[in-house]
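seq as requested:
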Amino acid sequence: MNVIRYPGSKINLGLRVTERRSDGFHNLESLFVYVPDIADILEIAESKKLSLTLYGDYLDCKSEDNLVIRAYNLLAANYKIPPVEIHLYKKIPSGAGLGGGSSDGAMALIILNSMFDLRLTGEELAEYALKLGSDCPFFVYAQFDAISRNPRNIATGSIDGAYSGRAMLAGGRGEILSSVEIPQLEGRIIKIEIPPVHVSTAEAYRGVTPATPATPLIQLLKQPIEEWRNTIVNDFEEHIFEKYPIIEEQKKRMYEQGAIYASMSGSGSAVFGIF
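struct tokens:
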């Protein structure tokens, strides 16, 4: 038996770093928006031994550290599941703030749950996902829901896509999630450009001074979308733009092309525009 799925990406609509935690992580406030139209390709098949083969964009990562292998090991520690061979075609660039690795790990959990009839709920899978990374639970909820409604989980692989309708307000270090409806995004097109630079998450956080926002993000999101440009910000942009002017230039081009709102996603380097 083999299963093929298309782990999508996400953008951050607003990102405020609110405080540094005692465990070394940071608390944040952001809206995660699922973007299925930029996707990797993940195939998992039963095998005689556990293996991972990578294709597409280069990943500077040992196989045992890849989140799809870590996802398998998490489940194998609690369930008697056979070895699998995993084929991962990377189309979502790393270091772009689109959550590609997290999405792959979450999708691996979902596939293995289905293949071996583990009968774990979305909430239970999200608990496993949090052990992989702070934004992994979001991808479990977004993709578990997507596959439930469309088992084929087909994605186009383009860099332009319609708003998928799946968005969650994130708090804590990204694991405290609540579904929200953002009617201003209905019918909008999300365009993503990826400048040729890599921004590490650690580098992004080093340049931020945490602070509690004066107005909660959920309140700002209720404004007309035309107001977002002046009120919804990504705390990473200021210092990342100083180091990588090409990212700021891409954001400016989005507005020149007619975007209603544009921003860097996550810690960068991807820039998205809402049209």
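Residues 2-274 form a domain with the Ribosomal Protein S5; domain 2 fold (CATH 3.30.230.10).
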